Amino acid sequence: MSLILLTIRLLLSGLFLVAGVTKLLGGLANSRKSLADFGVPKWLVGPASIVLPIAEVCTALLLFPTFSAQLAAISAFALLLIFNAAIATNLIMGRNPNCNCFGQLHSSPIKWTNFGRNCVLAALAGFAAWQIPRHPSLSLFQAVQGLSAKELAVVVLAVLGLAAIAVETFLLLHTLRQNGRLLLRIEALEAKAALGQQPQMPARMPLQGLPIGTKAIPFDLPRANGGRATLDGLLSEGKPLLLISTDPNCGPCNALMPEVASWQKSLADELSVVLLSHGRNADNRAKVAEFGLANVVVEKEHKIAEKYHAIGTPTAVLIRADGTIGSPAMGGADAIRKIVANKAWTETGFAAFMQALGHPVPPPPPKPLVPVGAQAPDFTLPDLDGNSINSASFNGAGTVLLFWNPACGFCQRMLPQLKEWESGKIASSPRLMLVSTGSRDANRAMGLESTVLIDDKFAVGKSYGASGTPSAVLIDGKGRIASGLAVGEPGVFELLSGKIVIANIPALSPPGPKSAKAAAR
Question: 74: domain range?
Answer without folding.
Answer: 2-146
